[in-house]
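Minimal example, chain plus glyoxylic acid.
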Amino acid sequence: MALNRLREACDVDLYTGAAAMPREDLAARIEDKQGIVCLLTDRVDRDIIDRAPALRVIANVAVGYDNVDATYARERGIAVTNTPDVLTEAVAEFTWGLILALTRRIGEGERLLRRGEWRGWALDFMLGMELSGKRLGIVGAGRIGQAVARRAPAFGMHVVYTGRARQSDARPPMPEGSRRVSFDEVLVTSDVMSLHIPLTPETRHLMDQRAFARMKRTAYLVNTARGPIVDEAALAWALDERLIAGAALDVYEREPAVEPVLLQRENVVLAPHLGSATRETRTAMSDLAVDNVLAVLSGRPPLTPVT
Ligand code: GLV
């Protein structure tokens, strides 16, 4: 177990609260620490880093690290690490789960059935959109974007994508026949559009009113990346105006809060940030974070530094 390995090598101060660690608690407890294993719910900003003069490594248990001020940490000579690769397949599988739930109305259908409102099979009942022959637009061709795209041929979907698809292993990064296009072309032509980019100042509210207005009225948006990439109020507006057919979200602007309008909509699938939540992947993420801490504290380079 990751925690035991850490305990064998270091004095560990473990936070055991059920919810995210309160900020004052983090600030007080980090003062004498050399390393921190933090979660995406911990905001490790300049103020927190300044409270920890002995800090040498910040090991984020997530691939995204927008919760950590990595630029400031670097200035201070502190290593920042994340957990890439080990969660790629889990997030890709989950993304496809959302795509299927959304386009085939699985959540909506189950809610209706549980309310006791199902009147039996009917030819025109709860029709969804078939994936076969449709276009999947991937925004961000990194590891997760590639893993989602790799599964598209199994569903007969054609892939367009933004960003550079770097090859990381022997496999071609994108399925045969995929095309790299502009963000605008993904917006305008996708039947299903899936976000796989990090949250940065440039990507915050990438999906705003203007973007939704350019999508096909029959298109679906899926976000398993970071909540603030989508302007939730703009999404609610787009759904009200019927500018898109629906959306599936695993991440939110102000987690765990969700824009109330979205909670009312049947054509929205809402998951509680479960992308990497498999036993296999969460174990691997914890192990990798601990390995990063142990490497830095023993004077070796971190395994997965963020830059
Ligand atoms: C989860 O959201 C992650 O970034 O790993």
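The chain has a mean pLDDT of 97. The longest strand covers residues 135-139.
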